[in-house]
Amino acid sequence: MKGIILAGGSGSRLGPLTRSTSKQLLPVFDKPMIYYPLSVLMLAGIREIEIITTPRDREAFIALLGDGARFGVTLNYVTQDQPRGISEAFILCADFIGDQPVTLILGDNLFYGHGLSGLVRESIAAPISGATVFSCSVNDPSRYGVATIDADGRAIKIEEKPSNPTSNLAITGLYIYDNSVVERARSLAPSDRGELEITDLNRTYLDEGILKVTPLGRGVAWMDTGTPEALLESSEFVRSLQRRQGLHIACLEEIGFRQGWISRDTLDEAVAMLGASDYGRYLANIANAGR
């Protein structure tokens, strides 16, 4: 299983914050935004990951994350000169995907909650045939792609930002596809806004009866951090949980260490680099507890 993080785009909804940097490099409380989707892939056991970014921001992502070795993963980078739709990610990453299935997560989405990693792991554990998307109940479904499912949980319709939605199940920014996704993406026609729409891609699976919609449980939070209000709300969410639980969300070194992907020596190196911060002191406690 390969993983892709889509971290391109102009971040226009966050201007002027994004005039000089990628929105996925902006802080969500104490970590860059991209740490959160990267942690979802890592917790699902995915170690080969390609990050799509812009030519302007590529070097900044490399400076932040490097080749991923200090987290126990392999990171590659590919650039997208302008946004042409989520589905273009599979065309850009075709060589990286090769003959493997792939999980795509949007770089401005934050997921957190009990059972999330198990849901994703379960979805990628069996041989992948078709597509799986994850849905979440929302109060304002007309802002999102919306899935309608039957009594047996099968997808019967998906709509993009419907004015009269028939369901409150928004399709989140986390998708799992079989290897046919590359050719399916290549076969799409651009929409009226000139983009290869993810909803159109999902409909190719729906029309063949091989699109699965997996609802996230009540205990799972999903946030799109692409507006100033959502960015602040997400930061407050992370701050509150970390303060109450004493555990950090999306601590990549901790995930790599607990998965057995990095050694204690590698963890100690992270402590030495980050020790002056609360994040670094948290890592130090993990390292000391493991001795």
If you had to describe this structure to a student in words, what would you say it looks like?
- With 291 residues, the chain is of the alpha/beta class.
- Helices cover 34% and strands 23% of the residues.
- It is built from eleven helices and 13 strands.
- The strands form three sheets. Strands 1, 4, 5, 6, 8, 9, 10, 11 and 12 form a nine-stranded mixed beta sheet that branches. Strands 2-3 form a two-stranded antiparallel ribbon. It has a two-stranded antiparallel sheet with strand order 7-13.
- The longest helix has 18 residues, at 228-245.
- The radius of gyration is 19 Å and the shape is globular.
- The chain starts with a strand and ends with a helix.
- The relative contact order is 0.17.
Shape: globular
> Mean of the pLDDT scores?
92
Question: How many H/I helical runs?
Answer: 11
Beta-sheet strand percentage?
A: 15-25%
Distance between the termini: 33 Å
> How large, in whole angstroms, is the Cα Rg?
19 Å
Largest sheet, described in full? 9 strands, mixed
Helical fraction equals 25-40%
* Backbone structural class: alpha/beta
Low-pLDDT runs? none
Q: Could you state the order of secondary-structure elements as H and E?
A: EEEHEHEHHEEHEEEEHHEEHHHH
Strand count:
13
List keywords for this structure.
291 residues; alpha/beta; nine-stranded mixed β-sheet; two-stranded antiparallel sheet; 13 strands
Show the helix and strand layout.
Elements: E1 2-6, E2 27-28, E3 31-32, H1 35-43, E4 48-53, H2 58-65, E5 74-79, H3 88-92, H4 94-97, E6 102-106, E7 109-113, H5 116-125, E8 131-137, E9 145-149, E10 155-160, E11 169-177, H6 181-186, H7 198-207, E12 211-215, E13 220-224, H8 228-245, H9 252-258, H10 264-274, H11 278-289
